[in-house]
Amino acid sequence: MLQQCLKIFRFSFAANTPSLATPWSLRPFKTEVSLPIIRFHDAQPTGQSIALDQEIFNQPIRRDLVQRLVRYTDLYDKKVTKATLALRDAAASGAKNHPQKKTGRARQGHRQRPGRNKGIKAHGRKIRSLRIDLPRKVRLQAYKVGLTAALIEGKFTVIDTEKLNEGKTKHLVQLMKGFESFTQPLLIVTSVDPDDLFLRASRNLENLETCTVREFNIIKILKFKSILITKEAIIQLTESLKQRKLTLLGDNKIVKKKYSEYPIEEYDPNKPLDLKFKVLREYLEDFEKLKKEGQLDKFIQDMPKTKKVGRINTINHH
Fold first, then answer.
1. How do strand 156-159 and strand 34-38 relate by DSSP bridges?
2. Exposed/middle/buried for 4, CB within 10 Å: 0-12, 13-18, 19+?
3. Which of 100, 112, 306, 313 could bridge 90 with an S-S bond, Cβ 3.0-4.6 Å?
4. How far apart, in whole angstroms, are the C-alpha atoms of residue 200 and residue 208?
5. What are the average pLDDT values for consecutive 10-residue runs of the chain, which has 318 residues?
6. Which residue intervals make up region (Disordered) (predicted)?
């Protein structure tokens, strides 16, 4: 049943002109694309499908952007951790070899200078990061191109959930035998909060790798030929890319709220002010005291007035 469903899907998919040979300026799909949802426990279609966002899964194929993102991701955490000795770190007495003049020999500097026996290496390695810069918009577009290319190649299979009744490896192997792609390395993409029993059961499988939406990057898209992704993971991935956030690449670890999401309280003049700082509370007490005694106007008149002259503030006292 599953194979027949996938064959019918691939036939209708091919009619939608999915080809990696499409010119880079054109979108590969002419109409909206949807994927059938497969039941994870018996590998049978649920009769439902999920529509994919055209702004994410239908982008022109730009191999140059994908190559730049792969290089950026590969070098993101790489560093040169070993360094050669500098002249100041070399083990030497620091004494001069021989007098500067009147010896008939060439002038000699440091005993461990480059070119001398047991000397340091000129322009040696230094501890540094190999990370390269890539604009945020380029990373976002390249990631969308990778998702589109994986969809054209038929890598994605949408499952309803990854939750298991028991965290046993043999139970998961029995479920995965219903999928034809289990004979080769397989990737299962889950939501941000995966099932603990599923993680425990999939820990010791050699051909199976799991990751969350945040860990799903361009390297994994290109590495695996078959990708099982949950329905909730596709929804979270779509919402994340719609908001132009790339949490999977180490950015936006703290999601900032919009101004409209913060609660705004209306001002109530009868409600006492709740000031956080002690200095402000003391100023407020002095203000209330002067207002109660009727000396507020006199206090304002006696305050020194400031007069700006260029960039210098001068104070005129009465």
1. parallel
2. exposed
3. 112
4. 12
5. 44 49 73 90 89 91 93 93 86 82 86 83 91 92 94 92 90 86 86 91 89 92 93 91 61 44 59 72 83 82 60 48
6. 90-122
